[in-house]
Amino acid sequence: MSIRKKRLKYFLLIIITIPLGIGSRTYAHALPNFLAEYAGDSLYALCSFWAVRFVFIKPSLSTVTLISFTICILIETLQLYQAPWILAIRHTPPFGLLLGYGFLWSDWVCYAVGTLIALVIALMIERSHSRTGTKKPLELRG
Questions:
Q1: Region for 100 from its dihedrals, namely left if φ exceeds 0, alpha if ψ lies in -120 to 50, beta otherwise
Q2: Phi/psi of residue 54, each to 5°?
Q3: What ranges do the domains of the chain cover?
């Protein structure tokens, strides 16, 4: 698969995931409690993975997984910092969505789940086919 096609696929995944994440917060009252509580953070990690892969298309998927998860953890940890200037930034769109509002340990689990789901989907997307139509086994190297 060409780099251009890969980037297009990940861009489309970003475009699909963002409204799902926003919807999981906007319509939380209509979702089962478990989904209302945890889906948004898992989708955040999913979208983070897509964005990292979009930018870093050549590194291995294991590298992208590590970068993406680390970004999510750093942003979550940054939520412990509550200076007035960053609180003001967090309360403006889109920074509230990107930076979050309050630290929760449970978000780390959601980020791990979302990142692993993204990795599995990326492995399926990037599985290549030979000319004879036989599939190569899934591997973490992109």
A1: left
A2: -60, -45
A3: 3-126
| Look-up of token digits 């492995």 | 123
The first and second tokens of residue 21, run together, are: 């994440």
- The position carrying tokens 């590590």 is 66
- Which residues, 6 or more positions from 19, have their beta carbon under 8 angstroms from its beta carbon? none
Q: What is the pLDDT of residues 29-59, one digit of tens each?
A: 999 999 999 999 999 999 999 999 999 999 9
Residue 2, pLDDT score: 85
Q: Residue 104, CB half-sphere, CA atoms under 13 Å: how many?
A: 12
End-to-end CA distance of the chain: 11
Question: ∠ at Cα 48 (88, 141), nearest 5°?
Answer: 155
Q: 136 or 28, which is more confident?
A: 28
